[in-house]
Every structure is written in structure tokens, then in C-alpha cells.
Amino acid sequence: MTVKIEKNIVGYRVAKAGEDAPKSNEAAETAQDNAPIEMNEHIERPDFLLGTTYKIKPPVAEHAMYITINDILLNEDTDHESRQPYEVFINSKSMEHFQWVIALTRVISAVFRKGGDVTFLVEELRSVYDPNGGYFKKGGVFMPSLVAEIGAVIEKHMKAIGLIESDEMSDVTKRVLAEKRAEFESRQSANNEDSGGGDYPANATMCGKCNTKAVIVMDGCATCLSCGDSKCG
Length: 233
Known about the structure:
Elements: H1 26-33, E1 50-56, E2 65-74, E3 82-92, H2 98-114, H3 120-126, E4 135-137, E5 141-143, H4 146-161, H5 171-190, E6 205-206, E7 213-218, E8 221-224
Antiparallel strand pairs: 1-2, 2-3, 4-5, 6-7, 7-8
């Protein structure tokens, strides 16, 4: 029987006597069709995306900024279902930072749609330093720049959707830190020292791990009340 070859020949082998004819590539193509879809720039934007909006009020800006991150749901209703960031928008009444904010959102959105490991964006953004100096946001957390705080928001979102593993403290660690804080504040009260009434004691120092003014010294041991980092192990 004559068979017309309509595709390019990519390989060949000599069949042995009694061996069945090689099967078509339908099985391989079927397996490829069933492979999980990964994020790439060719995926069209659906009409509906899941979104989360975060509000920040940096002291270097006159008005609050609203950061919206929209996610696309891939491989829905399968074992490979995943939620991936697709685009980001930043809105504010202030027009002072309008140009670079729009440029930043477009670049970040393009990286999101490119696919692959996009978590590197967090480190890149958080390492941007303002030559005029950073600032402390509410809670005593130091931000080296406005861009760094945007990076912190993206990191928070990636932890929420499971792209970055959350390093949340255990309930035991939280309880120990709460006890340490209560003991420290009681000692301050006994010495008639002002605790500041803030999130952490007024005389707390900067933590090198989480950039929060939450490090206290008790019995010669420096401990961060925010992340639990301690020089005493």
C-alpha cells in the first residue's frame, strides 16, 4: 500500500520482522495537550480577573496610593490550578509621581505576563533607595523608598496567593514575644519611662532583618518584637 508523506521526515528506523508498524504521534500530542498551562505572554487577557487593592500612605506623598494587582486563574478545576499575577495598577490623586508610576506598572505587568519566576521583582524593588533618605511607615517599619514600599505590597500579595512562602511566626513565638513585651513595658513603667504608646516601645531600635524599630534589650539579649529575630538564639 502506498502512503503519501505530507510532513517533513524528522527521523527513521528499520522495523524488524514481525514488529508492528510504529504508531502515530497522536499519543504524544494528546499528552502535550493535557500538560498544565503555564503563564506566558501569548495568553489572552480574559474578560474577568481576580483583583486585590492595597492602600498605602507614604509620608513622601501628599495623597494615599491605591495598588491593584489582578490575577489570572490557570488550569481551573484541575490539580494544576494556580493563581498568577497578570497586571498591576497604581492610582492616586497626586500627580507628582504620575510618569514614573505609570512606567513602573507597565513594566511590572509585562514581566507578570512573560511568565516564569516573577518573585525576583520583589527583591529588585525593595533594594531601591531614595537618595533623599527613606521613611518609617505606620508600625515603625523602615522603607528606603516609595518604590521599595510598592515592592513590599507586591511581596505581600505574592505571599497571599502562594507564590512566596510565608514566614509567619508560630503561635508559640508570638506568645513568647508578647510576654517579653509586657515584661519590658512593665519595667519601663516602674522606672517612669515613657513607652511612647506606639506599636513598639519608643526606645526600640532598628531590626536588621525586618527593618522595623522593634528591637529591645532585656537581660543583655537583643530581641525583635516584630519578627522574633534574636542575638541569643
